[in-house]
Amino acid sequence: MKKATAFITLGALGLTFSGSLMAADDYITLASTTSTENSGLFDAIIPTFTEETGIEVRVVAVGTGQAFEIGRRGDADSLLVHDTAGEEQFVADGYATERLNVMYNDFVIVGPSDDPAGISDSESVTDAMQRIAESASPFASRGDDSGTNRAELRLWEDAGVTPKGEWYRELGSGMGPTLNTAAGMDAYTFTDRATWVAFENPQDLTLLFEGDEALFNQYGSLLLSEERHPDLKHDLAAQWHEWLVSEEGQQAIADFEVDGQQLFFPNAE
Amino acid sequence: MPTSDNAFRTALALIMSMDSALLSIVILSLQVSLIAVFVASLLALPLGAALALWRFPGRNGVIIALNALMGLPPVVAGLCVYLLLSRAGPLGEWGLLFTPTAMVIAQVILVLPIIAALTRQQIEALHAEYAEQLNSLGLSRSRMIPTLLWDARFALMTVILAGFGRASAEVGAVMIVGGNIDGVTRVMTTSIVLETSKGNLPMALGLGIILLALVTMINAIAHIIGETAKRRLG
Fold first, then answer.
1. Are strands A96-112 and A265-266 parallel, antiparallel or unpaired?
2. Is Signal tagged as a keyword (chain A) (predicted)?
3. Is A201 in the B-facing interface, judged by CB distances under 8 Å?
4. Do A107-215 and A2-105+216-266 fall under one CATH topology?
């Protein structure tokens, strides 16, 4: 009965495997943005939180638009995203009970080092964007309804430009893939500073415009509604939410650096 | 090509360092894909054989559907499983989203049609060859299934390996239902996507080389077992 033995062995193997796939219970699922994950922020701050509270934080890094959808469906216990207007709407719609400022950084415009649209001496970000549009220089847009994409679209509107035409390329991808593509086709692109600094394949791309107040990029933490999703781990999620804005949490965020550069600036009230 | 140069060096360095994070990613990748292929085979082998032996109305429709599902885009399979397992979905109470189990379910859906469709084809050919002998033995069709499957085992090994190839190579489904969570649902293919998005191309390619080496190893083991068995049994 060699066949039967083989079968039982395989079955037992399968059970062992699935047994080891069982998970511990003291964890929360956090839906957040690619910029926070890709820059390495979570690797730096989550261990501190876990040590203090014993709560593991499992990060699902997606665009802000998708993070909202995950939150609406009740598939994450907590959200850390960067679209203040969208976050306030999320609270107003009853999906979250509280939204807190956690930290900020800024957006920058990067592009080919010879700067064909001449944006490096622009007076403002809207001026820079007008120059890109007027010279019809290739511009790579996320086009994925992420927080960065939403911010970029608001700035085109402020600049009085309708971003349409062969020069404006909507990629429908995350920040990293968009930077890879922009580097490949010598295009300008709009990125958060954290992803840019941590990005390792810039090729000829270089930072061309920064420093306008309109480029402010605020991150907020959302406490999801217990009423709407009673099954979520609200107690654990609340500890995370409060830790982020606590002195220790804010200090951990401030201490995170890439190449000696601080990438996120804590600003909880 | 400096990138590919670095990639080989990165791959080598990764293997030499026996990095524990890498090791757990490799183990999880193998666990998820092997379990998915095992479960899919349990269902698909008898299903494919039954489809080869029985004639019933709508049979051609089922065969066409199975063949078509071999081309199911992983991301669509992932999306369906996501909607099923999401808290707002019908099986939300199980709390399986963003777990390795969800990844196994998605891969079973991807692998099952391949194994079933190719098994159907193999068994049908074999049955045509042996129909007279089997009939003269007076075997019922359901009794024929184990006999035919056993007889076709070497061909079916390749069929199962094709299924394993599909499972270990896909990224679209596991990314959506697993969420690429560090230390929990991060596998080889989702790591490659992540490293690419960080612009760390040598690391991404290095991981690709390791994945390819692993898949080659598993295929080699299967091949050697098959050859040895063939020689023993004559």
1. antiparallel
2. yes
3. yes
4. yes
For residue range B4-50, what is the model confidence (pLDDT) as tens digits? 677 788 888 888 887 788 899 999 999 999 999 999 999 999 999 99
Q: Give the pTM.
A: 0.87
- Domains of chain A, by residue range, sit at 2-105+216-266, 107-215
| Rg, chain B, Cα only | 20
- What does the DSSP assignment read for A141-158? E--S--HHHHHHHHHHHH
Q: Which residues contact A70 (CB under 8 A, 6 or more apart)?
A: A31, A60, A62, A76, A79
Domain residue ranges of chain B, discontinuous segments joined by +: 7-233
Which of B11, B57, B2 has its CA nearest to residue B195? B11
Return the residue of A nearest to B27 by Cα. Answer: A17
For the domain covering B7-233, report its CATH number. Answer: 1.10.3720.10
Give the position of tokens 């394993």.
Answer: B164
CATH number of A2-105+216-266: 3.40.190.10
Is the minimum CB–CB distance between A269 and chain B shorter than 8 Å?
Answer: no
Put simply, whether A181 touches B (Cβ < 8 Å) is no
DSSP result, B1-60 = -HHHHHHHHHHHHHHHHT-HHHHHHHHHHHHHHHHHHHHHHHHHHHHHHHHHH---TTHH
How many residue pairs bridge chain A and chain B with CB atoms within 8 Å of each other? 81
- Distance between CA B210 and CA B218 in Å, rounded? 12
Interface test with B, best of A60, A72, A189, A197 (most B CBs within 10 A): A60
Query: Any CB–CB contact under 8 A between A58 and chain B?
Result: yes
Secondary element (H or E) of residue B216: helix B201-233
A57 φ/ψ angles, rounded to the nearest 5 degrees: -115, 120
Q: Do B100 and A21 touch (CB under 8 A)?
A: yes
Complex ipTM: 0.82
Distance from CA of A30 to the nearest CA of B (A): 10
Q: Are A34 and B197 an interchain contact pair (Cβ–Cβ within 8 Å)?
A: yes
- pLDDT single digits (tens) A169-208: 999 989 999 999 999 999 999 999 999 999 999 999 999 9
